Amino acid sequence: MHAYRSHTCADLTAANAGETIRLSGWVHRVRDHGGVLFVDLRDHYGMTQVLADSDSPAFAAMEKLRAETVIRVDGRVKPRDASLVNPKLPTGEIEVYATEIEVLGPADELPLPVFGDQDYPEETRLTYRFLDLRRESLHDNIMLRSKVVRSLRNRMWDEGFTEFQTPIITASSPEGARDFLVPSRLHPGKFYALPQAPQQFKQLIMVAGFDRYFQIAPCFRDEDPRADRSPTDFYQLDIEMSFIEQEDVFATVQPVIQGLFEEFGGGRPVDANWPRIPYAEALLKYGSDKPDLRNPIEMQVVSDHFRGSGFAIFAKLLEQDGTEVRAIPAPTGGSRKFADRMNAFAQKEGLPGMGYIFWRKADDGSTEAAGPIAKNIGPERTEAIRLQLGLGEGDAAFFLGGKPETFEAVAGRARNEIGRELGLTEENQFKFAWIVDFPMYEKTDDGKIDFSHNPFSMPQGGIEALNGDPLKVLGYQYDLACNGYELVSGAIRNHKPEIMFKAFELAGYPASEVEKRFGGMVKAFRYGAPPHGGCAAGIDRIVMLLADEQNIREVIMFPMNQRAEDLMMGAPSEPTNEQLRDLRLRVLPKE
After folding, report:
1. I need a surface site. Which of 131, 145, 421, 462 has the fewest CB within 10 A?
2. What is the pLDDT of residue 205?
3. Which parts of 228-307 are beta strand (E)?
4. How far is CA 167 from the centre of its chain?
5. Cα(438)–Cα(193) distance, integer angstroms
6. What 3-state DSSP class applies to 4?
7. Kind plus residue range of the DSSP H or E element containing 326
8. pTM of this structure
C-alpha cells in the first residue's frame, strides 16, 4: 500500500464497503458521541467520515487529535445505516472504521477556525492566509479561478491565437498608473519598471508578423486599492490581432467571454445581446462608463422643464453655461418614505439632498404630482416631466443639476441604489455592453490636455481629426462592461508614426520625448507595421463576478491588504545596507 493514501477523501463509495484502505488529510473537526469518536477528514478533493470506538486500536490516538492536524488513517470501509447517509457528500454513503492513526503534521491552536464560515478580521485572514485558504468557500474560489484560466487558454487556442510571453523587467510606459520601479545594479542610477501591461511588446509582436497573440499576463501597477482592484499586481487575458477593425475584436471576444460565463456562471442567464453604447450616452443615461444594464432605469435631461420655473435653485443654475438638470425615473418609488430614504442616501454622498416629484391619485381620481418641486413648478411642468419619463401613479423621479462632470458619478450611484431598493435590478444574470467612442483627451485639473485612455490608440478620423479641438477627438477605444464592472479594455492601435507624434504632441509630449520613451516602437513602425488592435480582460474581476464575490481579494490566492502589504510574508520590507550599497541607493528618512 502507498505510504500515505490508497484513496483520496472524495473517492470512497458504497462499492468500496469491506475494503481496507489508507487516507491522509487534515482533521476538519472531531465529534465525541459518548464512547464513539468521529473525525471529518479533509483533503483537497473532499471529505470522509472516520470513526473509532473504544475497541479500536486507533481510539487513544483519535482522542488527542486537534483540528487541522495532518494524519494518516488506516481502516475498513463500512456502509452507513440508511438513516445516517449524508446526500450532500460524495462519500456520504460510507464511513471508515479506523484501525491505525499516525500524526504526520501536528497543529498548534488555531488563530482562526477552518471549519465553518465565520467572519474574521481581514488582517487575521491575510496573516494566516494558508489557513484561510483551507476554508471551503475560498478553496472553491481559487479552484474556480484555475478552471477559468484553463478555459480561457483553450478558447483562445481554438480561436486561432498563439500564446507568447513578454518581459517582466522592462522600461516605463504611460498606462495611467504609477510604475513599480526596479533599480539596476549593473547600471547605477537607472531603473527598470515592472510592466503595467504588455502594451508595447504585444504591438511589436504584431509588427514582427505573428498576427494573433494572447497571454495570461501578470501586470503591475502602484494603485490605490479598491474592492474590485488589487493594489499591486493582477492578471489579464491579453489579446492583439493584425489586419482587423473594431468590429473584428468584438466578434472575436464575445464568444470567448460569453462562453466562459455560460460555463462557470452557475446556470445564471447570460444575455447574448451586447449593445454598443457611446461613452457620452453611457454617462448621460447611466452616470457611468461601466453601466449595470440589469437595472432598466435610464436618466434623461429635463432642463427645459425647469428654465424660468418657480424652482429657483434649478432655474438660476440653468442660467450658467454648461449646466443641465437630469431626472432619474423611479418606477414604483412614489412615496414620501422612499423619497426620504433617497435623500438620506444623497446626503451620505456629500450632497444636501436630491429634489424629487412623486405621483399619486388625487381626490378626484386623477393623477397628481406631489413634493416640494411639484409645488414650485406647477401642474403643467410636472405633467410634461411625467410624460417625458413615461411615469404614472405610484412612480417618482429624482433630480440632480449642475455641470454634468460634477454630479454624473453620484447620479450613477443613485440610479443603482434606486434600482436595488425598488427591486428593479434583475439579479442573478449577466448583462454585457461594449462602451465605444471614448474621448482621446481630457483636461486635467491644471487646465492641461492629457490622454484620457490608452495613448497608443488610433484617433477616429486619423491625423485630420487632430487638427481641431483635442477634447472633441474620439478614439477607436472600447471597454466591455458587465453588471457594473469593467471587464475588458482595448483599442485599435495607432500604427503610423506621423499620427503618433501628432497625438502625443497634443498631450504635451514633444517628438524627442516620444523617441526617448517609445523609441523601440516608433522605430518598428517605420519598417512596415500592420493595422492592429486588441484588448485585455481582467481575470481577477471576471472570477470575482463568477464567484459572486464583492471583494477581489476573495478570488486571489495571496492578496495584499488595502495598504498594499503582504501580512503573511512581511512585504514590503526594509532592504539591508549591503543591498543598498550594491544598488548605490540611499533611503531618505521619513518626513
Report:
1. 462
2. 97
3. 233-242, 276-278, 300-301
4. 25
5. 28
6. coil
7. strand 324-330
8. 0.92
Asked whether 320 and 400 are in contact (CB, 8 A), the reply is no
| Nearest C-alpha neighbor of 237 from the set 249, 224, 225 | 249
Place of cell 420655473: 309
The pLDDT score that the predictor gives to residue 447 is 84
The mean per-residue pLDDT over the stretch 347-352 comes to 86
Round to whole Å and give the CA distance between 401 and 414: 13
Q: Whose CA is closest to 76, among 53, 109, 104, 108? A: 53
Checking if the pLDDT of 176 tops 70, the result is: no
* pLDDT tens, residue by residue, 296-331: 999 999 999 999 999 999 999 999 999 999 999 999
- Of 92, 88, 58, 55, give the one whose Cα is nearest residue 75: 58
Q: What distances in angstroms separate CA 507 from CA 50, 463, 464, 493, one per listed residue?
A: 69, 14, 16, 17
- The amino acid present at 455, given as its one-letter code, is P
Reduced to 3 states, what is the DSSP secondary structure of residue 59? helix
**pLDDT > 80? residue 554:** yes
pLDDT at 117: 78
Residue pair 61/101 in contact by the 8 Å Cβ criterion: yes
- The whole-angstrom separation of Cα 475 and Cα 255 is 24
Q: Are 18 and 76 in contact (CB under 8 A)?
A: yes
Arithmetic mean of pLDDT over the chain: 94
Among 57-66, 172-181, 411-420, which is the least confidently predicted range? 172-181
Assess contact for 334 and 394: CB atoms under 8 A: yes
Torsion, Cα of 411, 414, 419, 420 (10° steps): 150
What is the spatial distance between Cα 393 and Cα 390, in angstroms, rounded to a whole number?
11
pLDDT at 352 over 90: no
Give the residue among 442, 437, 444, 428 at the shortest CA–CA distance from 458. 437
Instruction: State residue 132's pLDDT score.
Output: 96
Amino acid residing at 347: Q
**With contact defined as beta carbons under 8 Å apart, do 325 and 314 qualify?**
yes
Task: State the pLDDT at residue 151.
Answer: 98
Q: Is a pLDDT exceeding 90 seen at residue 178?
A: no
Overall average pLDDT of the 367-393 stretch: 94
CA distance 494 to 477: 11
- Residues 6 or more apart in contact with residue 500 via CB below 8 angstroms: 456, 494, 514, 522, 525
Packing angle between helix 246-264 and helix 136-158, nearest 10 degrees? Answer: 140
Q: Which three cell numbers stand for residue 151?
A: 478555459
Which residues are registered as beta bridge partners of 217?
A: 236
Q: What residues have CB less than 8 Å from 488, skipping those under 6 apart?
A: 253, 257, 479, 480, 535, 536, 537, 538
Euclidean distance between CA atoms 68 and 70, whole angstroms: 6
Which residue, 210, 196, 110, 207, is CA-closest to 161? 210
- Segment 446-494, tens digit of pLDDT: 888 999 888 889 999 999 999 999 999 999 999 999 999 999 999 999 9
Cell reading at 316: 438660476
pLDDT at 127 over 90: yes
pLDDT digit string, tens, across residues 496-510: 999 999 999 999 999
> Which amino acid, one-letter code, is at 40?
D
For cell 404614472, the residue is 392
